[in-house]
Amino acid sequence: MSEIINHKKNQLINLLRDKGITNEKVISIMEKIPRESFIDPALKQMAYDDDALPIGHNQTISSPYIVAKMSQIIIEEDKMDKVLEIGTGCSYQTVVLSYLFKKVVSIERIKSLYVKSKKIVSDFNRNNIKLIFGDGYTGSNIDAPFDAIIITAAPNEIPKSLIEQLKTHGRMIMPLNKNGKQILIRIKNTPKGIILKEIDDVLFVPMLKGIIQ
């Protein structure tokens, strides 16, 4: 089984390069982190398929390409220390970010996913991750401002409350529902206001308000 998984992982890394992932640090992180640790054991053979997979509660773990792409866009080449993630999910993207930023603050609104993620983060010994059970729309004022914000669910509009927690010259990457489809967008927070760039069509779960105990 391990030989098959390693072979599929190598194929995936080659695919990520072919699809435009050029940041070698991101590639190295994707290669290092065992995606199978974040999914149901029954789906282990699919861990290195470039597909989103179910993690329960109508949520998914994003495809490896989307994780790598969002990570590459959010980090660019700047020195960035602190990132806020909205939508911890199974914590795969969270752990990836923990190798790119000095501090990761991640918010999950579904209690059971939050509890599972706490164990996974502990198992990976990632001491620079702070997990919060709460409503992602509120962000984390106590930890703000952030150099970067990454949202892993699609709202119908850009959350103003999160823009307010973004440093000047900071950036946000997120999917946005627009004209009946979802667009991955990058936002830069400049002294004169936000600059928005559309990246690509994507498909994420909706971003919802409130918490689920």
Describe the protein in words:
It is a single chain. The chain is of the alpha/beta class and 213 residues long. It has 6 helices and 9 strands. It has helices at 2-18, 24-32, 64-75, 92-98, 111-123, 160-163, and strands at 53-56, 59-61, 82-86, 103-108, 129-133, 146-151, 166-178, 181-190, 193-202. A 7-stranded mixed sheet has the order 5-4-3-6-7-8-9, covered by helices on one side. Strands 1-2 form a two-stranded antiparallel ribbon. A hairpin with a 2-residue loop joins strand 8 and strand 9 (193-202). The longest helix has 17 residues, at 2-18. The radius of gyration is 16 Å and the shape is globular. The chain starts with a helix and ends in an 11-residue tail after the last strand. The mean pLDDT is 95.
Outline:
With 213 residues, this protein is α/β, with parallel strands linked by helices. The chain has helices spanning 2-18, 24-32, 64-75, 92-98, 111-123, 160-163; strands spanning 53-56, 59-61, 82-86, 103-108, 129-133, 146-151, 166-178, 181-190, 193-202. A hairpin with a 2-residue loop joins strand 8 (181-190) and strand 9 (193-202).
